[in-house]
C-alpha cells in the first residue's frame, strides 16, 4: 500500500497502513536508527492477517520530513507519533519498536500509558547516554553534516547490514537499495546532526521502572548492536516484561526472523493481561 504524509508537530510524517482497520487490535510499528518502515516489509504481511498495522517513518528517516526546525529528541518524536495517532482517530493501540524505535516506544508508554495496550521491544536500544559535549558542540559547525555523510560512507549500507544481520546470505539487492534510498536526499545529513544534538539519551532505570505497560522483549542471540545482556537488564527494569531470545539471529529481527517474530507478537497480544 502506498504511504500517506501528514503534517504533525511542524514536520511531515509518513506512514503506511495495512490490515483491517476493524481488526480487534492496532499495532504501531517503529523502526530503528538509519532505517524506515521498509525494515518491516517482511513482517507486515504476517501481522496484517490478524491486526490493523500503522508503520511510521520516524523523522528524519525514510519519507518523513527533515525539517531544520524540528526538535529531534526522543520525547518530541514520541509525542509526534502520539499526535499522528490522535489525528488518525486511533485511541487505543499496541506499539512495537525496533532498536531506536523501541526507545521511542518506551517514551510513548511514559507519555500516554492509558492509550497503549501492550508494548513489543525488538532489540530495543537502552541505557545509551547522551552524546558527549564536544560532539554536541561540533554539531553546530556549518560543515558538520559533511562529516556525518563521510562517516556513514566509511561503512556504507552493505557494511551496516553485515553488522546487524547474523547470516550475511540474507543480504540481497532489494535490501541494499531499500536501506540506501533515504540517503539520496542530502537533507538527511543535516537532520542527523540535529538528532545527535537533540537526543537526550535513553530512559534511565528510574523512568523504566515507572512503566506499567506489559512488554514483550524479543532479542537476537548474536545481536552485536544491542547485545543480549542489555535485553536481560531491561527485563529486570521493566516491571511487566518477558524476554524471549531468538537463536542464530542478529539485530535486525524483522528481516531475519519475520515469521517467528509474528508468532511471538500474536501470542503476546492475544494473551490476557492477567495471565
From TrEMBL:
Molecular functions (GO terms): hydrolase activity
Keyword Metal-binding: no
Gene3D superfamilies reported for this sequence: alpha/beta hydrolase (3.40.50.1820)
Keywords associated with the record: Hydrolase
SUPFAM superfamilies: alpha/beta-Hydrolases
AB hydrolase-1 domain: residues covered: 26-258
InterPro entries for this protein: AB_hydrolase_1 (IPR000073), AB_hydrolase_fold (IPR029058), AB_hydrolase_sf (IPR050266), Epox_hydrolase-like (IPR000639)
Pfam families in the record: Abhydrolase_1
The protein, known as: Alpha/beta fold hydrolase
Amino acid at each position: 500500500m502506498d504511504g500517506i504524509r501528514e503534517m504533525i508537530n511542524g514536520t511531515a510524517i509518513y506512514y503506511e497502513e495495512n490490515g483491517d482497520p476493524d481488526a480487534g487490535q492496532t499495532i504501531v510499528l517503529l523502526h530503528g536508527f538509519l532505517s524506515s518502515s521498509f525494515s518491516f516489509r517482511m513482517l507486515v504481511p504476517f501481522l496484517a492477517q490478524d491486526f490493523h498495522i500503522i508503520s511510521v517513518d520516524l523523522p528524519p528517516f525514510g519519507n518523513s520530513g527533515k525539517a531544520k526546525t524540528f526538535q529531534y529528541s526522543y520525547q518530541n518524536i514520541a509525542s509526534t507519533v502520539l499526535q499522528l495517532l490522535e489525528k488518525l482517530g486511533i485511541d487505543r493501540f499496541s506499539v512495537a519498536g525496533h532498536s531506536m524505535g523501541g526507545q521511542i516506544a518506551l517514551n510513548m508508554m511514559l507519555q500516554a500509558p492509558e492509550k497503549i495496550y501492550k508494548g513489543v521491544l525488538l532489540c530495543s536500544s537502552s541505557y545509551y547516554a547522551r552524546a558527549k559535549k564536544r560532539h554536541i558542540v561540533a554539531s553546530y559547525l556549518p560543515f558538520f553534516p559533511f562529516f556525518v555523510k563521510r562517516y556513514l560512507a566509511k561503512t556504507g549500507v552493505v557494511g551496516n547490514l553485515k553488522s546487524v544481520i547474523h547470516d550475511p546470505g540474507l543480504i540481497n539487492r532489494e535490501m541494499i537499495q531499500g536501506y540506501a534510498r533515504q540517503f539520496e536526499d542530502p537533507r538527511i545529513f543535516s537532520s542527523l546532526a540535529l538528532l545527535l544534538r537533540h537526543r537526550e539519551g535513553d530512559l534511565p532505570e528510574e523512568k523504566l521502572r515507572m512503566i506499567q505497560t506489559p512488554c514483550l522483549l524479543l532479542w537476537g542471540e548474536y545481536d552485536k548492536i544491542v547485545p543480549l545482556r542489555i535485553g536481560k537488564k531491561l527485563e529486570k527494569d521493566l516491571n511487566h516484561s518477558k524476554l524471549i531470545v531468538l537463536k542464530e539471529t542478529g539485530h535486525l529481527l524483522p528481516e531475519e526472523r519475520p515469521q517467528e517474530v509474528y508468532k511471538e507478537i500474536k501470542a503476546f497480544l492475544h494473551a490476557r493481561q492477567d495471565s
